[in-house]
Records
---
Amino acid sequence: MKSLIRKLEVSEIPAFVEIAVNAYPGVMQNTPDFKERFSTMITILQEKEKTIEFFGLFRDGKLVGGMRIHYFQMNLFSKIIDVGGVGLVAVDLLHKKEKIAKELISYFIQHFVNREVSFLALYPFRPDFYKKMGFGYGTKMNQYLIEPSSFPARGTKEGLTFLNKTHKEHIKDCYNLYAKETHGMMLKTDYDVEVLFKNPDHKIVGCFNGEKLEGYIVFTFKKMSETNFIHNNIVIKEMIYRNPQALSKIAAFLNSQNDQIHRIELTTQDDAIEYLIADPRNGSNRLMPSVYHETNSAGIGLMYRIINMDAFIEKLSEYNFNNVTIKLGINIMDSFIEGNSRRIVIDFREGKAAISQAENADVEIKMEISDLSSLFMGVINFKKLYDFGRAEINIAEIVNEVNTLFSTMQKPLCITAF
């Protein structure tokens, strides 16, 4: 049966909302009031927000699935590039197992190929499903449960204040300055800032140095007991700090909540939090053999995909691949994009990369586009992929040299939810 995928008309949005509510029962309410509010929100986005669009998949004129497409800007090793994103992929319950999700993702990929965007990102409902489509894993997310008193109190709270809608530009500027300094971060739009204030439960505390906002946290309170009203946690939704002084003041604020707060839930891609806090244990009292105290839980989330290798390498023309000089042949395996399974040669000269038209190479490697995407982003190193049998090389003696080529001091960080 032939499918048609196109941008949704406003009159079709309520039908998409019905599909989405059934597809995500855990986070959406099947009530007239919720669906009306959700339809209104999507309509506003569809008509006014330039960085978000909603698409539907039709068969025989009937809407049977849909998705939300995002137009992001991301820091790729200090260069801001365009990135395509997708979310809210939803399929009518009566049309499950009819490859609708696969068709939607295929369209999503081609949509950005046509726009000459070389890189994509998404959050998977099933990581293995998207891995088969060529998406590679991003940096793991860690969730810590920290006693407030474990945060250092060596800083003062001078300059801390609650933020409100009058501070929107301060928040956007603070976040985007941090994003431009941090590999993997997406720039925040006006709409993203507006969303922070739409949740009435959000508390936002900022750290000012004079007129300049140098850090902030967005948090909510979580009730931990039905019988004890003073047993609560703080859940940090977003924490940005541009220097150690701002972090020190935020930490002092969190420390001072010890009299009323049981634990602080911090979800972060920083896996070195134990060096900030006094006691990294999460309160579970679980031990791993022989004596390793449980500190956090971790999960796979954001996934990346290169969809145009030549254009992607061009984006990295100013990046230094550790001063390595080597001509590298890469045999790309991509079963999802027709014509993308091919061999390319990249000429690295003193760390600077360029696509070579020459056929010969000093060394040949072979891997899936999913792992190659994670490798280029600095999520995983080449030696580990080689050890796991995920990468092949024709000269095993120079595995370490290729590993050095792709080594980076910073894994990509991203806290943008979509």
Note: The radius of gyration is 23 Å.
---
Amino acid sequence: MLKWSKVQLLLVLGCFLMDFSHAQVTFFFPIDTPLVLSGTFGELRSNHYHSGLDFKTDGKEGRTVKAAAAGWVSRIKMSAVGFGNVIYLDHPSGHTTVYAHLHHFHPELMKYMDSAQYAAESFEMELFPDSGRFSFSPGDGIGVSGNTGGSQGPHLHFEIRDRLTQVPQNPLLFLPPLMDSIAPMAGVITLFKKDPNFSFFTLLDSSSEINHLFHINEDTVYVSLYTDDPSGENKLGIYSIQLLQDDSIIFSYQYNQFSFDETRFVNAHSHPTGVKGKDGWAHQLFKLPGDRFSLYADAGFGKMVLPKSDTTNLEID
């Protein structure tokens, strides 16, 4: 029979956008100040990870959208769904930038699009101009922000991708620093056991630094964490999480890049909190069989083996 184990849990969440000292600033912001984010890279969404940054536009359409670097239009599309009106710029650096949910494009691009739509007698249109036909310098206006496609409100969705693979990169690794002095908040902590099926119990807290001491009569447990990074009226996703047991990392990842083929693995990584007033998705700090998401570090699978009649320290940061 298992004896009770004491588990001390320390949760420390640092400021999300503060430490990008390794970033290579090669792009400019695609929209003028005020710069306010309503969505971040890797944010948990239903059935997918968010692949870019969402910039707020004061709840209105009509802000000038600018080329984030020198480049040429490689793709342009108008659609009633998805990204709606969207421009893709290729850059000599080997990247592609994406500007989605636009109201309309630069006049020359609109003329080009209108001609193709008229000839095809179709609103839905996707075009791939010859390289160099439409070139822009950094800061040039390429379009106007809108609310087209699957947008839930006026904003600019912005991505930076690898040009060859079209794998999305975290734009914050390439843009000037965005300072954020508000630490992420812990909303729900859930402990899982598997014997033979998963069951769980939930600890609740709403502070950014907590210390819990609890008892459990299991020899192995798993943890999940619901957290968000408050920014005004928005709750943003986080950049990284690591789980340590007695100072050893047993689970870790950072949202630096991921392919669109991997985005479905969000369903193996997250679960609804199931707690009233805590709507959203929790991060499972353990890896399920078959979850091949590439961002997991080689630090373990999040399985904690608890000592019997002793105390183990568990830290999430």
Note: The chain has two domains: 5-16+181-316, 37-173.
---
Amino acid sequence: MATLRELAKEDLFLSSGHRMCAGCVAPVVVRMMSMAARGRNVVVGNATGCLEVATTIYPYTAWKCSWIHNAFENAAATISGVEAAYKALKRKGKVEDDYKFIAFGGDGGTYDIGLQSLSGAMERGHDIVYVCYDNGAYMNTGIQRSGATPKFADTTTSPAGKVVPGKTQWRKDLTAIMVAHNIPYAAQVAPSHWRDFVTKAEKAIDVDGPAFINALAPCPRGWRYDTADGIEMCRLAVDTCIWPLYEVENGVWKLTYKPKEKRPVADFLKAQGRFRHLTDDMIQEFQEQVDRDWEALLKRCGEA
């Protein structure tokens, strides 16, 4: 594979002229997917959210490919409909060029509002790649909690106070839910580990059938970290095993990165303002849950 510097010089389908917040990792996720799709004709579907709003402020656009925005809940339905139409036109000889179809949605539009649409597209077997840029809340509309929000996180709809210490539920394991659809390929990625990311994205694009990529995308406003530390937040999430990197290819689970030294979850939690209210007992509870999830993943991957 080319170096990151070389890949960044490719003609990527998202330009640098967007208006995402300083320190947001979501556009990094999109550009890494673009690196994997280099040299291909691509149609992008985009759920309502930060990415859609900030890259297409009328009359401007940061996209250099065919791009479709529909409602919050139906990006997967829209892109699967385009893919079905493309196949029909291809059979009739009305389209000669080859195309790939990629949808992007935040965790609000993927874990929650768009889950039924995504599940249907995966179950029907459309040849699409759905990418979730997971920033752990509905950041675009005011930092409300989502199914991806970690336990104890302080959001505007799960505020930390004297009685309730932030969100009271553990986050949803969406990647495993997608694997349960028996799709050919699913993976978790983080931009801090770019080679792992781009390799998995290439696999997802090349696979015949539906593929799902869950990408960690820290948000400086919602997570409350310094804008320069977005990639470091990803690295901490991976090294604490809060966000493990793995892939599931035709039902076979494979761990793609194992920290040489598993860092304590406190390193990740204490780096963010949304967790500044945590007590030692809460951090310990969080650590124990991460340890259980990590051991379960190791067994699934044959690494125990």
Note: The chain is about 40% helix and 15% strand.
---
Amino acid sequence: MTDLELKSTSTAIMKPEVKTPRSTRAVMVGNVRIGGPEFAVIAGPCSIESHSQFSETATAVKAAGACLLRGGVWKMRTDVKAFQGLGSEAFQFMHQVLNETGLGLVSEVTDPRQIEMLDDYVVMYQVGARNMFNYSLLKELGQTRKPVLLKRSFSALIDEWIKAADYVAHGGNENIILCERGIRTFETKTRYTFDLNAVIWAKQNSHFPVIVDPSHAIGIRDMVAPVAFAAAAVGADGVIVEVHPRPAEALSDGKQSLTIPDFKQMMKTIERILEATDRPLLKV
């Protein structure tokens, strides 16, 4: 073998394989398209606690650039004595706030019986981490046509997460967005360990849009924004974060909720990161 042939063979062996991401199927969430080149920011309170709290938060996050609103009507809590959400009591004022802001609502459904009850209020159903393995709920959501935001369970393998999405898709509803929200590891300094690897893997190996929830992943207010920045940098399709006008008064997850000034600053920095990666912020 000549030196030239040897060099050619060596180059072929050393050339790294480049993984080509699968094409993402964009999902229309109300009037917002998630999974395209734009980066979506969904923000709002962990729980809808009152008319004034919901209205104040919704108005503020829209002004700062959020394209969708989050807010829990029913909350699954580890402690049975903890605040479980207002439930149907929140319906008395939800339409008014949504009409005033023009933002679509993303809210968690914790029981198949709640799907019909929430249908008039939400543009996307959220499946929380505790319900990722609730196949009865996933099958019911497969019969709807509204988008489903599927959070990864804190104990789930990536493959199990993708297969949970397939339960929804198998029913005919392919409008699914995956959400990485941290996994339970041996580490205790943060609430969970944020699995940035999973975001990249899911983007490269599935056709579902992928967003992240740094609020639940970290559980510490000061660390939420930096994780959101990392997600934007690696190509996530968006973030969903908790915002509360007065986190010290929050009835759930106050320690991980951004203040309104925190959120405004996070949005400014995210826009700069997106500019550096040639991506626009999704605006409504």
Note: The longest strand covers residues 40-44.
